[in-house]
Write a structure and sequence with these properties.
By secondary structure, this protein is of the alpha/beta class. The chain has 3 domains: 2-33 and 89-141 and 264-346, FAD/NAD(P)-binding domain, CATH 3.50.50; 150-262, FAD/NAD(P)-binding domain, CATH 3.50.50.60; 359-465, 2-Layer Sandwich (Enolase-like, domain 1). Helix content is 32%, strand content 23%. The protein has a 7-stranded mixed sheet. The longest helix is centred in the C-terminal third of the chain and has 19 residues, at 310-328.
Length: 466
C-alpha cells in the first residue's frame, strides 16, 4: 500500500499496515512528522508551557514573588527549536526505516486507480503501484482571506507564529479560534503587545460560551487588547510596519499580523481528478475512512474534515490501518458494528480537545447548543471550581467552571466542558464517560481522589441529583 503524507497520521497508518504484514511505502514532500511536529502541536506547546507554568506559580503562596519577572524569551525559543528537532526529520526517517517502511521524498500524486507518481527531490521520478490501498493523509493548510494588500504584507499563519525566531514588539492576531487564542497567549507572555481581532461575538465559538468568556478575561488581564465584532478590511506594510484597517474604522499598526481564520485541505495537485474526485476538496469517507465510492482509496486525518485534531487523526489512522489489513486478508468487516475495530465512531460522538491557554479549556462531545440542535432532551449541569477543595489548593483564587450535558432519556453524558488551570488532564476521564456511554448512576461510584481537581466530578453529580 502507499501513503501520501508522512505527518503523524500517515506515520500511524504505515505503522499499522506494516505491522499487519503489508508492504508499505510513504511519500512526503516536506518533513516526516508533518504539521504537528514542526509547526503546530509541539512548537506551540513548547511556547505555551512557560506561560502557563508562570501563571500557575503566581497563584501559589510563597512562589509568586519568585516569578514576577519576564520570561527568558531566548531560552523559550531555543527550547521550542529543540522540541522541533530544529526542523530536521532524520530521526523520524530513521523510525520509518526501523519498521520496514519504504520512504520516498518528493511530491506524490495519483495517476489513476492504485497508481502514484512521485517526483523525487533529487529530480527523479518513481511510479508506485498499490495492490490494496492508497491513503491520502496530506493534512490541511492555513486559509487566508481575500484581502487587498495581503500578499505584500507577508502575514503570519500558524506556521510562522510557531516558528518565529524573534519576539515581535507588536502583534495583531486575527481570529477567535484555538490557534488565535493560543498564539495570543504565547506571544503576549513573551512580551509582545497583542491585539486580538475577532469577527464574531466571542472566542472559541465551537465550545460552551463561558470558555471563551473566561479566556478573554484572562487575556485582557494579561495586557492583551481583545476586540470582538471586528473584521480586518485591508492591510499594508509601510516602512516595515503592518497597517490594518478594520470595519469599525480603526487603523492599527504592528510589527507582524497573524491570520488564524480557518483551514483548507491540502488535496490540490495530488491527482484526485485522475480518479474522478475534485481537486482541492475535502474527502468524503465512511467510518472505516474509505473514500465514498471507492474500494481502495482512503482519506485519513484533516483531509476528511471530520475532526482537525492530531489525536483524532491518529485514531483514524489506527482504524484505517486495521480496516486495510482486514480487507487485504479477506476478513469480513461488520459495518453494522459502530464500536468495532474498523469503525471511527468516536469521530461522531466523543471528540476531545484541549486549548492550552491560561486558563485551559477542555471539552469532549456536544455543547448544550449542539445537543439541542440535534434534538436531544438534555440538561446542562454547571459547577464553579471554587466549590472544589483540590482546585483551591492547586491555585490561590482558582477560577473556572465545569459543565456536563446529560441525555435525560438515556441518563448518560453527551458532552463535558472544563475551563480552569490544569483542566486538560481532566478531559480523558470525560472522554471515557462520553465514549463509553457510562450511566450517571454508575459514575456516582467512580470516586474522585481527595483533594484533587478531579473532585469536580462529584460536585457535578451532586448538582445533577440535587
Amino acid at each position: 500500500m502507499v501513503v501520501l503524507g508522512a505527518g503523524p497520521v500517515g506515520e500511524n497508518v504505515a505503522d499499522r499496515t506494516r505491522a499487519a504484514g503489508l508492504s508499505t511505502a510513504v511519500v512526503e514532500s516536506e518533513l516526516v512528522g508533518g504539521e504537528c511536529s514542526y509547526w503546530a502541536c509541539m512548537p506551540s506547546k513548547a511556547l505555551l508551557r512557560p506561560a502557563i507554568a508562570r501563571a500557575d506559580a503566581r497563584r501559589v503562596p510563597g512562589l509568586r514573588q519568585l516569578v514576577d519577572g519576564p520570561l527568558d524569551a531566548a531560552e523559550v525559543l531555543a527550547h521550542r527549536d529543540y522540541e522541533t528537532s530544529h526542523w530536521k526529520d532524520d530521526g523520524q526517517i530513521g523510525w520509518l526505516d526501523s519498521i520496514g517502511v519504504a520512504f520516498h521524498r518528493g511530491h506524490g500524486r495519483l495517476a489513476g486507480p492504485r497508481r502514484v507518481i512521485v517526483d523525487a527531490a533529487d529530480g527523479g521520478r518513481h511510479v508506485l503501484t498499490a495492490r490494496h490501498a492508497v491513503v491520502v493523509s496530506t493534512g490541511s493548510r492555513a486559509l487566508l482571506p481575500d484581502l487587498p494588500g495581503l500578499a505584500q504584507v507577508k502575514p503570519w499563519t500558524s506556521r510562522e507564529a510557531t516558528s518565529a525566531q524573534a519576539v515581535p514588539g507588536r502583534l495583531i492576531v486575527v481570529g477567535g479560534g484555538v490557534v488565535a487564542v493560543e498564539m495570543a497567549t504565547a506571544w503576549r507572555s513573551l512580551g509582545s503587545e497583542v491585539t486580538l481581532l475577532v469577527r464574531g461575538k466571542g472566542l472559541l465559538p465551537r465550545m460552551e460560551p463561558f470558555a471563551g468568556e473566561l479566556i478573554a478575561e484572562a487575556l485582557v488581564e494579561a495586557g492583551a487588547d481583545v476586540r470582538t465584532g471586528t473584521s480586518v478590511t485591508a492591510v499594508s506594510r509601510e516602512n516595515g510596519t503592518v497597517v490594518a484597517l478594520t470595519d469599525t474604522g480603526d487603523r492599527l499598526e504592528a510589527d507582524e499580523i497573524l491570520f488564524a481564520t480557518g483551514r483548507a485541505p491540502r488535496t490540490e495537485d495530488i491527482g484526485l481528478d485522475t480518479v474522478g474526485l475534485e481537486s482541492g476538496a475535502w474527502l468524503s469517507v465512511d467510518d472505516s475512512l474509505r473514500v465514498t465510492g471507492s474500494d481502495w482509496l482512503y482519506g485519513v486525518g484533516d483531509v476528511n474534515h471530520r475532526a482537525l485534531l492530531t489525536h483524532q487523526g491518529k485514531y483514524q489512522a489506527r482504524i484505517a490501518g486495521a480496516a486495510i489489513a482486514a480487507r487485504a486478508a479477506g476478513v469480513p468487516i461488520l459495518e453494522s458494528d459502530p464500536w468495532g475495530a474498523h469503525a471511527a465512531t468516536a469521530d461522531h460522538a466523543a471528540v476531545p480537545q484541549v486549548v492550552f491557554t491560561d486558563p485551559e479549556a477542555g471539552a469532549v462531545g456536544l455543547s448544550l447548543a449542539e445537543a439541542e440542535q440535534a434534538g436531544l432532551r438534555v440538561r446542562a449541569v454547571d459547577v464553579e471550581f471554587s466549590s472544589v477543595a483540590g482546585a483551591g489548593l492547586y491555585a490561590d483564587g482558582y477560577r473556572g467552571r465545569a459543565r456536563m450535558i446529560v441525555d435525560l432519556d438515556r441518563e448518560t453524558l453527551v458532552g463535558v466542558t472544563f475551563v480552569g488551570p490544569a483542566v486538560g488532564e481532566l478531559v480523558h476521564s470525560a472522554t471515557v464517560a462520553v465514549a463509553g456511554e457510562v450511566p450517571i448512576g454508575r459514575l456516582w461510584h467512580a470516586v474522585p481522589s481527595y483533594p484533587t481537581i478531579s473532585e469536580v466530578w462529584l460536585r457535578l453529580l451532586e448538582a445533577y441529583r440535587g
